[in-house]
């Protein structure tokens, strides 16, 4: 029986009426990231280290946040790897399948083009979990793209 090859990534492109430096700060300053993403982070993002915190997003309050910071290239690329599905507080984060989330910034005449890419869904072994992760993360990035735009444009 042939298994349909799933979509491996989500890409969201948003044009923001704010300069690159402002968007960069909203992405990489952990307190600002926490304000628009709705997560209470325990400390700054550090390349090569795991960012931890607690989600404050309505409906997901109290869920554990963990992400391995894999790229900080000011002011163009910020990336982390995380587990893209429901977080089980007892699950071993280190061994869980992860996806890569990249934020790429490009200057435009009006401000900044922000490209959010989440890739690696085909690394999730369970078909149902993979489909659920793609659906919920696609909806999530639609919401979060609006959140960061509103945050930096005020």
Describe this structure in words.
By secondary structure, the chain is of the alpha+beta class. The longest helix has 27 residues, at 127-153. It is globular, with a radius of gyration of 15 Å. The chain has helices at residues 20-28, 30-37, 127-153, and strands at 9-16, 39-41, 50-55, 64-73, 77-82, 99-107, 112-119. It has a seven-stranded antiparallel beta sheet with strand order 1-7-6-5-4-3-2. The chain has three helices and seven strands, in the order βααββββββα.
Name the helicity range.
25-40%
Shape: globular
Broad structural category: alpha+beta
Instruction: Give the strand content.
Output: 25-35%
Q: How many H/I helices?
A: 3
SSE string, helices as H and strands as E? EHHEEEEEEH
Q: Strand order, main sheet: write it out.
A: 1-7-6-5-4-3-2
- Uncertain parts: none
How many beta strands in the DSSP annotation? 7
Average pLDDT taken over every residue: 91
Quaternary organisation? single chain
Key terms:
single chain; 154 residues; alpha+beta; seven-stranded antiparallel β-sheet; 7 strands; globular
Explain briefly what this protein structure is.
This protein has 154 residues and is α+β, with helices and mostly antiparallel strands. It is built from three helices and seven strands, in the order βααββββββα. Strand 2 and strand 3 form a beta hairpin.
